[in-house]
Amino acid sequence: MFHSYTTYSLEALLGVLLSLSFELQREIGEKLSQKVLIDYALDMIKEGFEESDIDLPTDLDGWWLMPLSDLKRILEGFISVGRNAPVTEPDLMNSIKSETRNIDTANMNAWMHDAALMFVYIQVRQLLFYEKYGNSYWLGNNESFRLPPFTLENIFRKHLSEDGSVKEYLFFVCENLVLKQHDKNALRKLTVQPKQDTVKFVKQGNSFIPLSTHEPGTSNPRYDNTVFYLQDLGYLTYSDKPVPTPEGESILQKIESISL
To answer: What is the pLDDT of residues 149-167, one digit of tens each?
Structure first.
């Protein structure tokens, strides 16, 4: 869950930044810098809040302007009520998938909003799991070229300890965990396999030059496979939007009875 949602939200942020950069480049050309791009993207969140396909609760009004600690407290409240939360990560993920079905006509305001909120949401959930279960909650490998949960937790805690704002945190995320991370991994892949060119942008001096767009997603099928397994076990229905069967509901009630 942590891996799938974190990866997807970061991929979604990369996608919207690249699509936006093409639009801005047509308007301002070589004056487009990485900072200008990220600032513009973050300013889109306000309109995205109104334009998102999700009916968002008033608790989240202006969430992008809040201190990070305030948004964390609100999302912890959502997490504490489980499926009864007014919005969850799967809601945001499905909204992004709907919004980006056609990249050329995607609503970039809503796309940026939902991706940013989804990333912060999963970081809050991840931190709660760590506080309850310690390092044992993560069973995956910590590969040096990826962003393991503990790295993301430390970054999140650092911004909380500095009383940073949500906007400051998201700027850091876009700059370092999205653009810089993509740049680093694209060069790593090119070194390992010279014919595998996945570079999506280049920087020349202060100019940010996009090369191609990017559709949000993940090459790892863990999430879809989990759904298939649960369907085969009889816990989810076989439908376009799978829902829990009676047996699945019984298991969910047991899970939700365990306080996080």
So the answer is: 778 889 999 999 999 999 9
Report the b/e string of 144-177 with b at 16+ CB within 10 A: eeebebeebbebbeebeeeebbbbebbbbbbeeb
List pLDDT tens digits, range 98-108: 888 888 888 99
Which residue matches tokens 């010279």? 194
Give this prediction's pTM: 0.84
Q: Are 200 and 186 in contact (CB under 8 A)?
A: yes
Q: How confident is the model at residue 130 (pLDDT cuts 50, 70, 90)?
A: confident
For the chain, domain boundaries: 2-215, 221-260
**29-52: buried (b, 16+ CB within 10 Å) or exposed (e) per residue?**
eeebbbebbbebbbebbeebbebb
